[in-house]
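To: structure subgroup
Subject: Chain for Friday's discussion

All,

I'm putting the inputs and outputs inline so they're searchable in the archive.
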Amino acid sequence: MRILAVSSAKRLSFLPDVPTFQELGVNIVATAWNAFFAPKSVPLGKVDRISNAIQEVMKDPDTQKRFTDANLVPVVNNRAQTEAMVQAFREQWTSVIQNSGYKP
């Protein structure tokens, strides 16, 4: 089996010779990600404290190594960056879902 392309925005460090779909002319970026969410009722101060704690853990070299050893790309985002990422995700996939005819 040969990997033809990756769907990330940039080449992966553990597959440096494999181009992205965008490099091959296919306009798609699709990656898996995880994030922590809280209800709107949680005060922003508490959300920021939890966010800061998660960021500190994610910046830890041992934590980073665990991710990279598992061929995962560790990303450390703040609340604003995560909100922007979720919005971009919605914009990218809303038309795909609508065009599929899916009805919840």
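Points worth raising on Friday:
The chain has three helices and no strands.
The CA atoms of residues 5 and 24 lie 8 Å apart.

D.
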